[in-house]
Amino acid sequence: MTFLKTLTGASALALLAGMAAAQTDITVAIQLEPPNLDPTGGAAQAIDSVLYSNVFEGLTRFMADGSVVPGLAESWEISDDGLTYTFTLRDGVTFHDGTTMDAEDVKFSLDRINAEDSANAQKKLFANITDVSVVDPQTVAVTLDQPNGMMLFNLAWGDAVIVAPESIENIATNPVGTGPFKFDDWVQGDRIEMSAYDGYWGDKPALTEATFRFISDPTAAFAAVMAEDVDAFVGFPAPENLPQFEADPRFQVLNGNTEGETILSTNNKMPPFDDVRVRKAVAHAIDRQAIIDGAMFGLGTPIGTHFAPHNPDYVDLIGNSQHDPELAKKLLAEAGYADGFTTTLKLPPPSYARRGGEIIAAQLREVGITAEISNLEWAQWLEEVFKGKDFGLSIVSHTEPMDIAIYANPDYYFQYDNAEFQALMDELNATTDPEGRSALLAKAQTIISEDYVNGYLFELAVSTVAKAGLQGLWLNQPTAAVDLTGVSWAE
User: Fold this and answer.
1) What pLDDT digit, counting tens, does each position of 266-288 carry?
2) In the chain, fewer beta carbons within 10 Å around the N or the C end?
3) pLDDT of 3
4) Could you tell me how many helices (H) and strands (E) the chain has, helices first?
């Protein structure tokens, strides 16, 4: 009898261990909910956070280390003059509705980016595509009007994922992609659910079900993780709580880098910010380290231009905008604003914006600038600031990789219009020599720093709090993505 009891106990333990090892579902929390589910028609980072590589795929894709590798294109050839890219597509790829993905879908997707009515946030990156031709069902030729050394990189963006004409009408609420997970449900204000796609062309993910929950409030985020209601929180919004998780054996904390240049966005066409002396005054009024310490509890790397410090081509230009309130007051007086002025400071939901905004408003107040804070929900921010350009100042982190070319678009929301910079970006696109590209990137960084287009604050860090048994989450974010394709539970 004793032996039987012992055996039964051992079996039960083995069964429990097996059950733990067999877990194949995950609940991931992020702070922001996507405003829609179309990565090719919206600017919000949260769209890619949920869908990039999980539901949607492009011809190329980013890996966790930032490298660009084949995606739906298994290979490509570039013509000697650099003007034609011929992509060979993978065999056996289907969309989640069972339809075949072929060259016609690639042509549809790329043509749609450049269509006159396109809502693609990064349309300018693909503007020099002059023709997309179907060679055969597995081959597509993309022709450019001039060489573009960034084309394979640009095609890895979430804005260039491949979509199908059959499902495009409802893509904003019912996304149909080719990725390893298919979209199941969106309970707005709460969660998005997806499950493994049985017909996936590539390596099957270890996970069979995934839920993304949206928890914007830092206090609620802390409570959800501590109660183990979520398995991971990517972009944990309360850095002051990280030491508590680090000391708790139930959890692991991953502190990594993003491509997110966090800036005090400035409306360059709105007086008085159309005067470079005023923009320079704002830059010298800011104490970026105080913002990093106060809003991010020390997490973040100071920047002096719109470029990631971990990029080999980064130029340290912080000296152009050191904290100097007296210089800021002098510049304001020279510009005719000795008594200061009042402007708007419209803030989206992330903690870096809301917390950083309070600190920046206080710093601006010291030099005579009154910044009236408006806290906006993400959809409001996109409508008023990004689309409507109805703002004086804002704070946002630009998480797209290598996105300095946005400064060449005078219609972009901060409305910077510099013909010299635009010509420089054209020259960069046509340059494939690495040394030549480095020189041009250094010049580009210097121009926008010395023009004080925006207030350059810090490169956003990303902290992930996860249960101890979870493995395969990205440490860094070379693009805004919570890529679940390599995530699994330790046995």
Assistant:
1) 999 999 999 999 999 999 999 99
2) N
3) 34
4) 13, 19
What is the bridge-based pairing of β-strands 369-375 and 341-347? parallel
For residue 50, give the H/E element and its range.
helix 45-51
Tell me what pLDDT residue 66 has. Answer: 86
Strand ranges for 267-334 from DSSP E: 301-302
Distance CA 309, CA 160 (A): 26
Amino acid at 107: K
User: Phi, psi at residue 53, to the nearest 5°?
Assistant: 70, -20
Burial of residue 240 (CB within 10 Å: 0-12, 13-18, 19+) is: exposed
The whole model's pTM is what?
0.83
> According to the model, what pLDDT value does residue 22 have?
64
DSSP annotation of 257 reads E
Strands 68-70 and 60-62: antiparallel
Where does residue 341 fall: left (phi above 0), alpha (psi -120 to 50 degrees), or beta otherwise? beta
HSE-up of residue 272 (Cα within 13 Å, Cβ side) = 21
d(CA 265, CA 346): 10
Q: For residue 151, give the DSSP letter.
A: H
Give bridge partners of residue 258 from the DSSP assignment. Answer: 477
Between the alpha carbon of residue 412 and those of residues 178, 274, 389, 417, the distances in Å are 31, 15, 9, 9
The pLDDT of residue 133 is above 50: yes
Question: Contact, 470 vs 252, CB < 8 A?
Answer: yes
Answer yes or no: are the C-beta atoms of 88 and 74 closer than 8 Å. Answer: yes
Residue 341 token pair: 């002025």
CA dist 31 and 217 (Å) reads 8
CA distance 171 to 164: 9
pLDDT average, residue stretch 421-441? 91
What band does 8 get if pLDDT is binned at 50, 70 and 90?
Answer: very low
DSSP 3-state of 206: coil
Tell me which residue of 136, 387, 370, 189 sits closest to 272, measured CA to CA.
370
Among 245, 192, 237, smallest CA distance to 218 is for: 237
Q: pLDDT averaged over the chain?
A: 93
Q: Which residue has the tokens 């048994």?
A: 469
Per-residue confidence (pLDDT) for residue 155, from 0 to 100: 96
- Residue owning tokens 């028609």: 41
CA 490, chain centre distance (Å) = 28
Q: For position 4, what pLDDT does the model report?
A: 38
- Sign (positive or negative) of CA dihedral 40, 43, 48, 51: negative
Record the tokens describing residue 210, joined without a space: 């995934």
Place of tokens 């590539």: 202
Residue 5's H or E segment, with its range, is: helix 2-21
Q: Can you tell me the distance from the alpha carbon of 163 to that of 57, in angstroms, rounded to the nearest whole number? A: 9
Q: How do residues 374-410 score in pLDDT, each as one tens digit?
A: 999 988 999 999 999 999 999 999 988 889 999 999 9
